[in-house]
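Field notebook, page 255. I keep forgetting to write these up properly, so this time I am using the form the group agreed on. The chain and the ligand, flavin-adenine dinucleotide, are recorded exactly as supplied. Prediction of the bound pose follows.
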Amino acid sequence: MHQRTPEITIIGGGLVGLSVALGLLMAGQRVRVLDGADNDARASQGNFGLIWGQGKGWDFAPYADWTMDALAAWPAFAKQLQDLSGIDVALDQSGGYEFFTDPTEFDAFEAELAQQATHLGNRARYEMLNGEELRSQMKGIGPDVVGASFSPCDGHVNPLRFLRALRCSVQAMGGHVTLGATVSAIRLQPNGGFALALANGETLQTEQVVLCAGLGAATLARDLGFITQVRPQLGELLITEKLGDRLPFLSSTIR
Ligand SMILES: Cc1cc2nc3c(=O)[nH]c(=O)nc-3n(C[C@H](O)[C@H](O)[C@H](O)COP(=O)(O)OP(=O)(O)OC[C@H]3O[C@@H](n4cnc5c(N)ncnc54)[C@H](O)[C@@H]3O)c2cc1C
């Protein structure tokens, strides 16, 4: 008997949902992405675009390895996105700094990088620079900076171009992306598959569901019988007036 390829519906059209969609499409699956409302809190529209390895997985070896694999995969991935979408995500992997003004935090981060290096072996590449070394190398580093770590593996992309490139690539591969399609409930159907109730009153049927709704996953996860660990966390950003020039270095501390 001929079996149809199951249609997979991805709830959430941020970086995670679109990346999953692209991977599934490349594996030959039929994919639909439903994305929520314009006023959702979307990390994919407000992030810094850093492609960053420093410290990642210092306390969990597989995460350290995955991060290094991901950093190494970026040049080919950026090219693939450009080929599919025509959008240059402006990948720059020329290395980046984490700056410190607190000596205790600087020492603690050095210890984390040393621990991360024990997982990565000869893939670990970083150096620690003290305040004097930094001030002799770059203009504008103030007296309160006690030091920085530098890794030549780190870099960034333009985050908004990246999001758009992913969306266009999914569409170019034959995926359907519907915006303004907030899912309000997921119901398991007695004969298999799922019914998705949308906030606009529509109901959609699907054979499989992947929940990638960021902060919106918390309520929908309950419909699927699990508790999600995704939760909002208060951070701090200090925003200055616009600078005349771009900073002459990449940093996760100052963007
Ligand atoms: C300030 C900040 C800076 C960051 N900087 C970096 C960085 O430099 N580098 C890095 O790698 N990471 C960074 N991150 C983390 C990164 O941005 C996130 O990990 C990533 O964007 C998460 O993507 P997501 O698709 O899971 O979630 P989201 O971007 O939140 O996307 C979820 C999507 O689901 C949709 N949705 C929600 N509920 C529903 C529903 N019920 N039905 C349908 N759709 C729904 C939303 O509309 C949204 O589009 C940063 C995060 C923040 C907040």
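OBSERVATIONS:
- The mean pLDDT is 95.
- The two ends are 57 Å apart (CA to CA).
FOLLOW-UP: compare against the apo run.
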